[in-house]
Amino acid sequence: MWEYTNKVKEHFLNPRNVGEIENPDGVGEVGSIACGDALKLTIKLDETGHITDAKFKTFGCASAIASSSALTEMIKGLTIDEARKITNEHIAEYLGGLPKEKMHCSVMGRDALEKAITCYLGEPEKKIEGEIVCECFGVTDVEIKRVIAENKLTTIEGVTDYVKAGGGCENCHDKIQELIDMSLGKKTEPKPIPKLTNLQKIKLIEETLEREIKPVLQRDGGNIELLDVDGDRVLVRLGGTCAGCSKSLMTLKHHVESKLREFVTDDLVVEEVAL
Fold first, then answer.
1. For residue 81, is it within any domain?
2. Would you say the pTM of this structure is higher than 0.70?
3. What is the DSSP string of 205-260?
4. Active site residues
5. pLDDT tens figures, 54-112
6. How many domains does the chain have?
7. Is the domain of 225 the same as that of 163?
8. CA atoms of 13 and 8, how far apart (whole Å)
């Protein structure tokens, strides 16, 4: 069970500024109900450019409600430039801390504030930047890099806690780890290519011969037959016009062997077995 501070509990049980401002000067909407969290922030400013009112509506957990409530209290009285400096860490600190698994709620508040300010200034809403890394929650590499840098994250679990990326099917874990390693200046070692079993190797050789090699030889009246596979040695017999041809060695090395190395493994050596 997560430990919540008294201030988180207070803002959850007695949230401030719940609702929506009529004719707001700025609106920021983030998240989606489908992903489990959604927040709509509306703000009002006076003629001096200070935020005089802020209200929120949220669909989410206790931390989402508390973070949204805290944010509205924090930004009242601030100028746009001052409000822009608020980070998710500031929201968490205002609440006396959040469980690490719930830090994404403070990130959602920060993102909603940025959108509300963009709306107020009449700036075009930022297009999604970068490449989608986490398909489950629609999180891009740009978002992940930002949260890693801002919060000095070093683990996949940390990234999940802040932006949910990696918390679904887990297919994106390798990519998230690459981004973490890049931020730490580590070189990501390429994963070793799994070694083929003999059966897998023979099957791939047969498929490549049928698909890539035989059709080319047969167009010129030639043919090829697989006789045996001994380790990385592929023993074949040429037929048709290829049999006894003066260029048969060139055919074996420049066509047969190169294709097998391309589609199977680059360690293969093709040898012709004479009749």
1. yes
2. no
3. HHHHIIIIIHHHHHHTTEEEEEEEEETTEEEEEEEETTTT-TTHHHHIIIIIIHHH
4. 35, 105
5. 999 998 888 999 999 999 999 999 999 999 999 989 999 999 999 888 888 888 999 99
6. 3
7. no
8. 9
